[in-house]
Every structure is written in C-alpha cells, then in structure tokens.
Design a protein that fits this description.
Elements (H helix, E strand, L loop, with lengths): L1 H12 L12 H15 L7 H19 L14 H24 L4 H15 L13
Length: 136
C-alpha cells in the first residue's frame, strides 16, 4: 500500500497547471492516465469497448461545438475566449480517451501515427502542387 500512497502524492502534485511551453509526449499522457485510473480503481472499467464508446460520446460533444457555426476560419478569430476554452476541453477529452484506448490495447499510438503518415505519403504522392487535390 505505501507504493499506492506514493503514486497518489505524485498524481495530486502532477495536476497543477502545466507549463505551456513544455511539449507533452503521448507516453507522458498515457502514463498519467494509467495512474489516474489506477489510484481511483477505475482500471476495471477501462475495457477497449468502454473506452471506445466514451470516445465516441466525446467526439459527439466536440461536433456540437461546430454544429451550427458553418465554416470556421483558421485560428478561430471570431470566437470568444470561453468558446475557445470549451473547444480545448472537448479536444482534450477526445485525445485523452484515444490515448487511453491505445494504451489499454497495447498499441504505440505515436508510432502508429507516424507509420500512417508514411503510408499516406505513398498513397497520395505529391504530383504537382498547382493541380487540384484528389483528396476530398
């Protein structure tokens, strides 16, 4: 039990506001999420199916933000600070469930993403940047 208490102290201290200039790795997120679930006894609920369904729910909440806005300019110049904060929260929920799902499935999400980019580069080669994209 002392090890669990040490983790609780670490986890409680790790929930302070992050340093915005620090890049956070997927591995760090995965470790923090695993510990977060462990100290709360939530691991038994984190099956791949349950995490996927939670992820889909969060994607729905993210979609609601854009549902009636029409096209939105890059950088969200016409959005309020509150709207941007809400978007950050929903994007974070999606990311966190995705990272947790990959971890529970035993997958390296970062490496899988890099591999997918490489496959896409081969599948969609640069022919001529002035021609219309065939990707829709």
């Amino acid at each position: 039990m002392p090890q669990l208490r040490e983790k609780r102290v670490y986890m409680e201290n790790s929930y302070e506001s992050p340093n915005k200039s620090k890049d956070v790795s997927l591995n760090e997120l995965s470790d923090r999420l695993a510990e977060f679930a462990e100290v709360r006894g939530w691991e038994k609920y984190h099956s791949p199916r349950n995490l996927l369904l939670a992820l889909v729910g969060e994607v729905g909440e993210l979609s609601e933000i854009f549902q009636w806005k029409g096209e939105v300019a890059k950088g969200l110049p016409n959005w309020t600070a509150d709207d941007k904060e809400h978007l950050e929260e929903e994007l974070s929920d999606v990311l966190l469930y995705l990272v947790r799902l990959a971890d529970v499935c035993g997958l390296d999400l970062g490496q899988a993403a890099v591999t997918k980019i490489i496959k896409n580069a081969s599948k969609y080669p640069v022919v001529n940047q002035k021609t219309k994209s065939t990707y829709n």
